[in-house]
């Protein structure tokens, strides 16, 4: 029954994404949907780490920045094709995450938050200072990306690429959390001591989910950079990390569909508030405060518990 419900929900998402470009005629709204989808994929990976495994990360934009710059630096300076450059960025992020996860996850609470925050800030500083490779604070342009002989030069081309990425990411996340690996993550979130008692290798699961989440971010950093056509250190900025974690919290931690809703809301809301010139930041902050006061578990889990359903 649960599997059937999962595939129905996934089918509805795929159908909505398939219909959307034929319904949306305005280029601005198509661009907004693409950005929402890209953010949703990053937030899905982050939610696996934060929501399901209970491990905080305040520097996740650092991995996104590494992926973005790999897709800029390797083709520009070393003549790589954009697709292998994207894969190289994912491998670099995966290896970096696996290397630092063991010492970082020995920390708890505020100390863990500060360690991940420091990682993101360090990546941002390197990207700003290595100007010969990265272009410094001004960033650098990216070459046009081709896929299977097709040059991805229009928003509609990018829409289909990102839509496929999103459906696959949601499918993978839903299957992951329903697997023994996902159940181990939930146990880890509940109690590390109890998890060890029942035979869960706590360190291995922490390292694995942190690495997977970093790879998610790196791949979408590359996609975002190619879509925009320009990469700057802002990709790895501290505020970008906070924006991503806020999407997780607002949508609902430990909820796949909450990740999508949080990404949609926090990507679209600033655009909708742009008409309130000079007040948009105040109104945006007030809306977030109201969400946290009245929906402390996030939108999807709160509504799901109210109507007696699970929020995965």
Summed up, what is this model?
Helices cover 75% and strands 3% of the residues.
What's the total count of β strands? 4
H/E topology pattern: HHHHHHEEEHHHHEHHHH
Mean pLDDT: 90
Low-confidence spans: none
Radius of gyration using CA atoms only:
19 Å
Taken as a percent bin, the fraction of beta residues is under 5%
Sheet having the most strands:
2 strands, antiparallel
Task: Please tell me what the overall shape is.
Answer: globular
- Please state how the strands of the largest beta sheet are arranged side by side: 1-4
Termini, distance in Å?
14 Å
Instruction: Output the structural class.
Output: mainly alpha
Number of domains: 1
Share of helical residues: over 70%
Structure description:
This is Amino acid/amide ABC transporter membrane protein 2, HAAT family. One of its GO terms (cellular component) is plasma membrane. GO terms for molecular function: branched-chain amino acid transmembrane transporter activity. The protein has one domain (2-237). The chain is an all-alpha fold and 312 residues long. It is globular and about 50 Å long. Helices cover 75% and strands 3% of the residues. Helix 2 packs across helix 11.
